[in-house]
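Retro notes - structure team

What went well: the batch runner handled both jobs without manual restarts.
What didn't: labels got mixed up in the shared folder, which is why I'm recording both outputs here explicitly, each with its sequence directly above its tokens.

Job 1
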Amino acid sequence: MSSEHVVALVVTWNRRDLLAESLRALQGQTRAPDEILVVDNASDDGTDALLARDFPGVQVIRHEVNTGGAGGFAAGLTRALEGRCDAVWLMDDDTVPEPEALEALLQTRTGYAGDRPRSAPPALVASRVVWTDGRDHPMNTPRPKAWASRREREAAAAVGARPVRTASFVSILVDAERARQVGLPVTEFFLWNDDFEYTSRLLRGRRGLWTPRSVVVHKTAAFAGADQDPGARFYFEVRNKLWTLLGSPGLAPVERVVFGAATARRWSRTMARSADRATLWQGLRRGMREGLGQQPASLRALPRLVGPGASPRTDLDPTVPRRSAARRPDGFSVLLPYYHGDDPEALVVAFRSVTDEQTRKPSQIVLVRDGAVDELLRDTVNQLISVSTVPVTHVELARNRGLGPALDHGLAHCDHDIVARMDADDVSLPHRFERQIELMESGFDLVGATIEEFADSPDLPVGRRDALTDPARITAQARFEQTFNHPVVVFRASMVEAVGGYQDLPFMEDYLLFAELIQAGARVANVAEPLLRYRVSAGAFHRRGGIDLLRAELDVQRRFRAMGFTTRTQSARNVLLRGGYRLTPEPVRRRVYRTYHRIRHHAHSQSG
């Protein structure tokens, strides 16, 4: 059973008896939450006395005024995320979970392998919500992710789930790390659409799942959907939906159009079925007037998540440790992450190639275990550490975070300002550090090198990626392509941290980081000769294309444009050429890639 720390969060207002039923169901879970937190929105029906008498172990935040569901969940999340917390289980006070509801949510969360290399855990997992008669509740059916890729659907199906784009606050298990990144629900919403806006933020660029194995009963007064007649509350629906469509960073431009059209159709149905259209028209006019006016301050202050204006990691993400101790200017560290997909024998070869076999040895090896691994890989790592001639710092992450976050965690443990990257299945040539560290000590901030590719044996190279060596060409060409081979780079940790470190951008975290370093004025260089042999698997060219790579490509190009790294013309060129490359058939990609690097190698040989 999962060892993750889960906080159950319930927001209540004047539903004492239903709240008691909900809390008893929480306490009766087959996998009980580690903490239960209730936000009492100024109830005056004896809720406070009930909590004190019957539920003394439940934590309570009592508001003097009713702040609505939005304010209640914002306050509860603030409290939950301050402490040790891996996930927060959100629900309303009229929600009664079945005994295995949380256990099923956690099984889905921890069992999800993802559809991308080193995928992060799902940002949320939603329960199946039924009414009192067992029918699926139309008010709380998560919005399916209609454009999910085949791999995303298959990864969800592997744990008996489906991909979703948004969900309601009626039983969702939210990843605490993601919640810290995206901010809190917008309190000015008060009620209605606060969950739609917040979950759209959680799931922008991340995965969300709905699992039918986790079941909760939503004991609303009537069995009705989102297009029921809301009466005077229609004002909140209109205002908050406009605020979301026009201002939330959780929605992409095309989603604003699609969801806006769906909203207009639903409002039309609501109007047509209403017995009191005058009240709805009044709410529509007032809601549109305020929704099209100035947006609330807390909505405007939310961090941008992707695309133009996207913010680098800020203090909203405290899960990555911050180094307070000064780093040593002498010597250097090697940063080497590994995860469950790595081969133990290849890791041994990689480790030895950066320690015993180097003509200039590092001062420290930082191994980062990115999530759980099997016994063989664990024993292999322990053996390497025990016999290593170089001091090893072993950073162990409880679950797989992805390459960017894993590198950030490891970087915080590097004791030296000069840090060399290494992967768990590559081979550094013996003179690698001797050549690169000399350049770093002469004043460079980022140094790469040419690499050779191999498939089966490191002694039998099958390809080569020549690196540009003129610093001016390196920085200029970076506007179009990656000018550093990530597995062989050496950089200054202080400068990497100054630009925000690695961002969680699968497939493109290295390209984005190097662009930020160049933009910040880093002195860059590449060694012309090969210093590393890079393993290419049978599926290497398949992974260089497809919808996921296209999305990552478009994302990084938007970020480049937003930070001023590329011009409009350069950005358009990159989207056309680099984006088009991602969509070409694999045999074409293979030929283009090989031809391009063959031409570059010929040019490199001629200039040399």
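Job 2
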Amino acid sequence: MNKRNTITDIVQSGMFSEIDIHFARFVTRIDNKNDPDIFLGAALVSHVTGNGDVCLDLFDAKNQLISAFADDQRPFKLPAPNEWEEKLISSRVVGRPGEVFPLILDKKGRLYLSRYFDYEISLSETIKEKAGKKIEEFDSTRLSEGLKRLFPAEQDRQPNRQKIAALVAVLNQFSIISGGPGTGKTFAVAKILALLLEQSPLRIALAAPTGKAAARLTESIEAAKRILNTSDTVLSQIPSEALTIHRLLKSIYGTPYFHHNAENLLPFDVVVVDEASMVDLALISKLIQAIPPEARLILIGDKDQLASVEAGSVLGDFCDRDRIHEFSEPFRNTVIQITGEPFETAKAEDGRITFLKDNIAILMKSYRFNLSSGIGGFSRAVNAGDVESSIGLLEKQKDTSLEWRPVANTDQLHRLLRTLVLDDYNDYLESKDPLETIQRFNGTQFICALNRGPYGVIEINRFIEQVLRKAGRIFYDYHHPEPWYDKRPIMITRNDYELGLYNGDIGITLSGRETDDPGLYVYFPGAGTGDGLKAFNPHRLPEHETVYAMTVHKSQGSEFDHVILVLPDKNSPVLTRELIYTAVTRARKRVSILGSETVLRWAISRKIRRTSGLRDALWE
């Protein structure tokens, strides 16, 4: 018989952070019983929330923690779920929904930090209310004409799903447009805004979760405006700048609060959020509370990409992940009548009546990867979790866009990296013009699954610098704590609104360009100098890091000609099909995967599993 846990066992397990332990001690002190099971529940819910889950499922905790801890070898025993649930709810620190306690336990045995339960309930209730509001008043003739003008018929005579998505956004107060890379999501957004503005003048806000994503949305919308077939009056009303969600809501320095909230609503009629898969539960809950009740909210993203760094998998929960939902019959008839698209929707997997089914449009046609593309075929197989097809495509390597180099150890990895670095960076290192140098650097990007360890970003960046230095391609004092040198690429890791530099921005260090100072300057794309660049003295920059390599998470929202994905030599909880899919689809032309078959199979077979009650609240 297993002995009962002690608090000492739990603390000394080494599996919890100081924050987890401090929170558990705080909770048990309030409870005044010093019960190890209460302590364990508090420590675990703090831990899983810090690792991306929204709650702890008492009845599935074993599986949940296998994902969180990589294996099931724990020096403590999980209590029997029913007994654990009974003990928690009888304590002084756990309440039921609607009560005020540090921890909340819902009727399905999910244990929450009270703040995250409030976020989830608030979000689900607001979305239900907003999703149920259809736009009844519109000029159908003008709308039909606009759809025909802005969304011409597809050459392959297939239904124009961008046109259908546009109508979903026009007819609903809340809508989601999800699609993979190259499906034209942001271009469709510009057309949607034109359709809305052709109906009536509107105040519009464009937002994204990061500075880099906001900058890319700005660029995409501006590019689309140059070719949109609409009036100058309409074009002038489409915003010229996208903001981060934090800037849009006006964050209060040093606090988790914003100036715009439920009591001080945003002054907009339409809010568009791009890269919505990167938005966590807390942030989107605060955003939606600040949106006026009658305003439209349009979420754009790829439901199959990596979820947010912080807790939640909101876009995936909104879209019900892998389940298929067809439009309701009345809405389908409306779509056919207005768009003229005689489409057949996919058959739903079940007969449930769900209110969100008419609010979601899925874009499936990629204009970047055709059906015969190696990258396209591999990404589709990975996304479907089809391990054998994925490995088969890599083994055949019929398409030069897709390359797999099995790696057994770090020596083999370093040999491959050395060749790739010296070959791929040659043009970049020879370039003299700043703009050309930036463009050439963006031709190749090393992407890692991990941040630390021999296969992680920190070590790969160090190794690449070493290769280039030994080859005489870069010169610097490697004893210096942060050596600056000609051609050093860096990524900003903290927003600086005064300088106009944002988390994720990539700049290149160059020497001898400024006439008043021949020293080193870091150049970033964007308005500034006459050649469309911003130049900064390195010592003025906010927090930053060398970026020959970056994590998959930090690559989200970016595109590169050649992506080189470095996988670790053994299984890790971060390895999932979403991670492989996200990394591979950053590539425009070519992907090289450096990793073993065992690790690839493990990753493709595993799906991100974030525990929350949001999907149940919206779809059950």
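One thing worth noting from job 2: The domain at 7-121 is CATH 1.10.10.1020 (Arc Repressor Mutant, subunit A).
We'll revisit the folder naming next retro.
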